[in-house]
Recover the amino acids of this structure.
């Protein structure tokens, strides 16, 4: 398993959530009207991960049980229960995160909009994913994949998912539990 597999799975979850909210599937911003947002090409455009890597990621996710093939559509979709269990109990050990040097970037973990009001971290420094086009300064945290900040600017749901994941990776027990509870609500 690679860290980008988690990003791809949460993008698929984000697309499913969008389809549920809208009631039908409409192409996300930047896609042609007839283009399938679940296609490898569309995922490449949305995430900044190559088509080859996305294809390999989907295969790895199916083998690991974190994704399944939908019988009706043939699309790969995340196994939300298994994904939640992996994120809550294993991700911080497989892909650990530690705040680093001060840098400009996109707020993540406790500084992201999804957690900003409900949870405050000790200290006055925020955590950010390094991103040259951002305005916030904080301690840098390596994202799960280098293109995560750009992908999150295009997709607010994906941003919320990945910020919650970072809160689980970085936070202490209480903070991680709060983020895990919010993640579980979103994955239901």
């Amino acid at each position: 398993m690679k860290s980008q597999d988690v990003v791809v799975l949460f993008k698929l979850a984000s697309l499913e959530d969008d389809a549920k909210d809208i009631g039908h599937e409409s192409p996300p911003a930047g896609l042609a009207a007839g283009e399938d947002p679940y296609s490898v090409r569309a995922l490449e455009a949305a995430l900044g991960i190559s088509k080859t890597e996305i294809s390999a990621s989907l295969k790895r996710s199916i083998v690991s049980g974190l994704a399944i093939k939908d019988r009706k559509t043939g699309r790969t979709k995340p196994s939300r229960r298994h994904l939640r269990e992996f994120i809550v109990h294993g991700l911080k050990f497989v892909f650990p995160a530690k705040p680093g040097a001060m840098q400009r970037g996109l707020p993540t973990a406790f500084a992201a909009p999804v957690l900003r009001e409900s949870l405050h971290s000790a200290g006055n420094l925020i955590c950010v994913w390094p991103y040259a086009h951002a305005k916030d300064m904080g301690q840098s945290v390596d994202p799960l994949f280098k293109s995560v900040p750009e992908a999150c600017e295009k997709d607010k749901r994906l941003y919320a998912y990945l910020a919650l994941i970072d809160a689980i990776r970085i936070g202490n027990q209480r903070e991680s539990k709060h983020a895990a509870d919010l993640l579980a609500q979103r994955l239901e």
User: Anything to note?
Assistant: The two ends are 24 Å apart (CA to CA).
